[in-house]
Predict the 3D structure of the following.
Amino acid sequence: MILLTGATGKTGGAAADALIEMGVPFRALVRDAEKAAALKEAGVDLIVGDAADPEAVRKAMEGVDRVALILPNSQEQEALEMQFVDIATAAGVKHLVKLSSLEALPEATSPIPALHWRVEEHIRASGLDWTMIRPNFFMDNLLGYGFSIKNEGSFALPMGDGVTVMMDCKDIGLAIATVLAGAGHAGRSYNLSGPELLSFHDVASQFGEVLGKPIEYLNVDPTAYREIIAPFLTSDWHADAVMHLFSEVVDGVVPPKVTTTFKELTGQDPTSFRQFVQNHIELYG
């Protein structure tokens, strides 16, 4: 049996959809049963509880041999993920798949990649079989700019001339589902990327090409941007961590690279940014 966390979020939801399409049964630990109604209708075994509650996690892991660890970024994430790993080990789980980060390196100083690295190390020391799924920037981060792109012809980010290898969360979810449903992935760290390196000037240009009108990328002051996003994040820690991560993109601290890993893993080409925009044309157009 497979246990999936984060199944009502973007990436975990994409993994859930992929597993359902593959016909692979699984269990999902969810906080909100109403939000997970579609999963229940699809025959998914739901355990309602919080990943922060050890008893809920233990209950969800009964009879499980493969788990996917997909938790949102927060100040508590490291402790929660390590607790999850320890419970999985004690429960006799065989294989753990973690959603990590391409920037998770021993020398990482940015809070989010650094916590991912420490959790990766904890997993590697646990005795579990493991697989790390390590993407870069999510295309889905740009879904929140639908209104400004559609109505103002612009979007604002403090990314300077920074370059990323953006991925669609649907592709990341498919990669996770492929590992959960398959074999031969133990001890592998999969560095995933989209099909091309993109600056945010490139992103604006591709928005314009698909939408048939000029779209402008506005490079905004980081301090001003932090004030804008802070009310929508979990804490000041989270806001500072996001801004630190963005600053590393600007500075090219971890130079992104296009990899062929996603196609080798899934047999599919990763979604291009142009196709991503087309897939969400009603939001942007």
